[in-house]
Design a protein that fits this description.
347 residues, Rossmann fold, 4-stranded antiparallel β-sheet, globular, binds iron/sulfur cluster, ATP hydrolysis activity
Length: 347
């Protein structure tokens, strides 16, 4: 490497460090663990329940205005992790520090207040809306709960404003969810999540149940609202193309563990973990010639049970480059904020 190239690389690293230092840290999750007790099938009445490790020590940081994408197979713990962030499922260990306060230790009343700042959008748009309530009532419900002092007229005004913001006509305020398409129902869910002006939204597979054209509309809507309102997003999805499009950083999960995390560009350009490589190789390329030449790295077998995870590296039973030592030592995330990997073979 010439001196000029070295200097440019050093300047680039310094600029990146400054950009990170400039940003305000909203959320810091440290070693979060979620476990469920599964009753034993034994007839012995004192048999102990088994522990299902749904999330096994996940740490993340989220900055103001940033989007963190979370990917991984079904059953890898993405949604459980997201729910644990806002206390919908209890964490058995670790901390969720939101603007300097650990949410896992907050009393119920204070945690309820914090929910104004963190909202969630769910996967199935129709199932997440109460079929007996009108659209207006669904969107207004959080306002009435947290701001009971608002008059009916003020609530209606705010609801109509929000409906316009998310691309719904205010004159459908008295209709019921079943009268809307999947995309429109997701817009109602977004309006309900945004009505309290939160700082962060957790999007739990918000477009998985929608048609491709509608997916693009909803993703574009989320991006424009993020820009307008300065929101931070945690975006969970199966579709890596969408995650690549919307995320600033991406976190890859496998069996409740983080196997790789990094800035979207770096991670997609040079995935380092064998699991991430397999996921990336399955992403379609919009060029028929390249797509035909592409080698897909197939993973053998199914995701192991989180009731009985493999010893050492949790990915070793499906890893194409596993060594004997992978069964003995559990790898930890190594690297920096720009790109970190959890694999014994990656220095
Ligand atoms: S630690 Fe071993 S088993 Fe795990 S991903 Fe790396 S090479 Fe594969």
């Amino acid at each position: 490497m010439t001196d000029v190239v070295k200097q440019e690389a050093a300047a680039g690293k310094a600029a990146k460090k400054n950009r990170v230092a400039d940003k305000k840290l909203l959320l810091e999750v440290n070693d979060l663990k979620v476990q469920f007790d599964i009753p034993s099938k034994s007839l012995w009445p004192w048999a102990k329940p088994s522990k299902l490790k749904a999330v096994d020590g996940v740490s993340i940081k989220l900055y103001e205005g940033e989007t963190l994408g979370i990917v991984g197979e079904s059953g890898c713990g993405k949604s459980t992790f997201a729910r644990a962030l806002i206390g919908l499922v209890p964490a058995v260990a670790g901390s969720v520090v939101w603007l300097g306060q650990d949410l896992t230790r907050l009393p119920y009343k204070e945690m309820r207040e914090k929910r104004k700042e963190i909202q969630m959008i769910f996967q199935d748009p129709l199932a997440s809306l109460n079929p007996r309530m009108t659209v207006g009532d669904i969107i207004a419900e959080p306002l009435r709960t947290f701001f009971p002092q608002l008059s009916k007229v003020e609530v209606k005004e705010q609801v109509k404003d929000m409906m316009t913001k998310v691309g719904l006509l205010p004159n459908v305020i008295n209709r019921y969810p079943h009268e809307f398409s999947g995309g429109q129902c997701q817009r109602i869910g977004i309006a309900r999540a945004l009505i309290l002006k939160p700082k962060m939204i957790i999007c739990d597979e918000p477009v998985s149940a929608l048609d491709v054209s509608i997916q693009a509309q909803v993703v574009n809507l989320l991006q424009s609202l993020q820009k307008e309102l300065g929101l931070s997003l945690i975006f969970i999805a199966h579709d890596l193309s969408i995650v690549k499009h919307i995320s600033d950083r991406v976190l890859v999960m496998y069996l409740g563990n983080v196997v790789e995390v990094g800035e979207t560009k770096a991670l997609f350009a040079e995935p380092k973990h064998p699991y991430t490589k397999a996921l990336m190789s399955a992403v379609p390329i919009p060029d028929p010639i390249l797509e035909r030449q592409k080698k897909i790295e197939m993973l053998e077998g199914d995701l192991p049970s989180p009731l009985n995870p493999p010893s050492g590296c949790v990915f070793r039973t499906r890893c194409p480059v596993a060594k004997a030592s992978c069964a003995e030592t559990k790898p930890t995330l190594t690297g920096d904020e720009a790109h970190a990997v959890s694999c014994l073979l990656v220095a």
